[in-house]
Design brief:
Distance between the termini: 53 Å
Order of helices and strands: EEEHHHHHEHHHHHEHHEH
Helix content: 55-70%
């Protein structure tokens, strides 16, 4: 634990440039996909909706939004100790995730330019948005005398290959959960401005609308490929990605609960609300969603958090790596068992929900 009166130190590639966080199962990832398969997709069944979303992207509602104002022009040395460390980690994780989106969308735009001009332009305009977000976050890190070398990040990060349908599931959920995370923080700090420790939070209201539009694009894209939504395999994969995204966020945020406390939020209550709202959003397109109101759902996540906390303590014990790995095995098994329980929990039929609403 960093003493509250001590300025934390970070490993640097060179002065002022932070060494990227080590890849783990919980850190933001960079993705690539089968671009030939994407090029062959026929979007005609839902092209009107995709064209309408493209027009929204062209409007570029936030083209003048990401401009630093006078409030940034001050010293931030008073944010110190553990709060400073956790806040820098928050900025880094957010910047890495946004930059990952930029790289993926930019490459998709380039590869689809000839085969699908509508999709290509949508991806290019989303990459524009993600670049703004990443740049704004990276500039915020410089207020704490650190930045990420995004060029180095591009070359040094390992890339995870996902088939297009998995990219669509994952990015849809990433964008929608990003919307709910940003808007919940914004509304909380709007009601409690005394907890707004840094001005970047003032930008979250408009910012999250970019996330929401991106999520709507992936929703429309999946609807153009009904085979990704309408069979038994789709139900299994949607459950998998919902659980993966929710569990990853929950474990990450509870591990950094002191950061959320510094802005007046209870990390667990915040995550539970975000999970419920994202699950409701997913019901508009996915064939099934998770039963997050089941009394065992958050209990299982709490058990996983406890096991993850014990693993983190082992990792900081200074013991030989082999011994650490051996000691972590029962905690990994405990998390794996809880995830299996949640995955096997009877899901909610979202198709039926949509029928009832109509």
């Amino acid at each position: 634990m960093v003493n509250s009166l001590t300025k934390p130190t970070f490993d640097e590639i060179r002065p002022g440039v932070k060494v990227p966080a080590q890849d783990t199962i919980l850190t933001p990832r960079f993705y690539t996909t089968d671009f030939d398969e994407m090029s062959a997709m026929d979007i005609s069944v839902n092209e009107d909706e995709l064209q309408a979303i493209l027009e929204e992207f062209r409007t570029d509602y936030n083209r003048h939004h990401f401009v630093r104002d006078a409030e940034f022009e001050q010293s931030w040395e008073h944010i110190d100790g553990e709060t400073r460390k956790l806040f820098v980690e928050f900025l880094e994780r957010s910047c890495t995730a946004e930059f990952s989106g930029f790289l993926l969308y930019k490459e998709m735009g380039r590869r689809l330019k000839t085969s699908s001009p509508v999709l290509a332009e949508c991806f290019n305009l989303m990459s524009r948005d993600e670049a703004r977000h990443a740049g704004f976050l990276n500039k915020a890190m410089s207020d704490f005398n650190l930045q990420l070398d995004l060029g180095f990040l591009t070359k040094s990060k390992s890339y995870t290959f996902f088939k297009p349908k998995f990219i669509f599931y994952a990015t849809y959920l990433s964008e929608k959960i990003g919307y709910w995370r940003y808007i919940k923080i914004y509304r909380h700090l709007e009601a409690h401005p005394e907890n707004r420790i840094y001005p970047i939070f003032r930008f979250f209201e408009n910012w999250c609308q970019d996330e929401n539009r991106h999520g709507d694009f992936f929703s429309a894209l999946m609807k153009s490929q009904p085979q990704f939504l309408n069979d038994w395999k789709a139900k299994l994969w949607c459950r998998f990605f919902l659980l993966s995204v929710f569990a990853t966020m929950f474990l990450n945020d509870l591990q950094r609960k002191d950061f959320y406390a510094s802005i007046g939020l209870d990390a667990r209550e915040y995550d539970m609300d975000v999970i419920r709202k994202t699950n409701e959003s997913a019901a508009k397109v996915f064939p099934v969603i998770l039963n997050v109101d089941h009394p065992e759902f958050f209990k299982a996540l709490d058990t996983s958090v406890a096991a993850n906390t014990k693993m983190a303590a082992i990792g900081q014990s200074g013991q030989p790596k082999a011994l650490q790995l051996l000691r972590k095995i029962p905690h990994v098994a405990a998390i794996g068992w809880q995830m299996l329980r949640l995955y096997l929990m009877k899901p909610v039929d979202a198709v039926q929900m949509r029928t009832v609403v109509r």
